[in-house]
Amino acid sequence: MIMLENIRHPMGELTLEIGKLRIPPGLTLLVGANGAGKTTLLELLATLQLPRRGEILYRQRSAAEDLPLLRSQIGYVPAEIELYEEMKVYRLLAYLAELKGVYHRERIDALLSDFRLIPYRNHKIKLLSLGIRRRIALAQALLAAPYFLFLDEPLNAMDTAERKMAISYLSRYAGGRTVIAAVHEMNEWDEAADHVIWLNRGKIGFEGGTRRWNDELPLEVWEGLITREQFENCSQRNMIHFREMAEGIYVRLIGGNRPFPGLTLAEPTLEDAYFVRQYGRDSVVR
Predict the structure, then answer these.
(1) Which CATH architecture has domain 2-213?
(2) Do the Cβ atoms of 40 and 11 come closer than 8 Å?
């Protein structure tokens, strides 16, 4: 459990303000528009910064009093990763493992396997794709099996297979631990996430379980094919997404009543709930 109390911290033109927040073990998605404070919050949680005001407790321990101990229990991957590009993958992980006090080569071998890095173990990092580098960054953050893991856009540059692999691993890893991932695309985490924190201009707009995230909105989501004429007359504010097809335009819309004949009710997703929260209930036609 992580507890935040009376946090105030500057972040550009805005201030991150959190009165009280409890983050339980499990996989938590941190969402919000660009500039909402996601990176600032992650940096505070990872102790890269200390809050100007307020306190953060990690299982009842304060960073102000137990910083070295807490940092040994924290893993962090920023959005912009920097690795020693001249080093080979295995050598880098072995070097970082020693810095973290991890001397069991079995741990490195396990992470190489888990993140499908074995074919690249003797490759220089500068020769690898951004997606593979992102997997290396995740692996190094996990070397000491941290209890707290903070990730800023962890799937950046990964292809579809890599993303599914990473989500599956993080979902399993979060059992009994606290993993917080700042993400832009929520739907791919639908089956994995336990909790959601929504930051809106530096303040907590929502925090709770994924079921509450969906259920607390009076959502009706409609999907199906419409004509191009209907599409042109459709309010873009209610449009979650659309795709042109030979027989018409497939749409996914939010509304209180059936917007067009032939559309059917769909189960709201995490992304649907975010759409309504971020862009306002007033955008939904009732």
Answers:
(1) 3-Layer(aba) Sandwich (3.40)
(2) yes
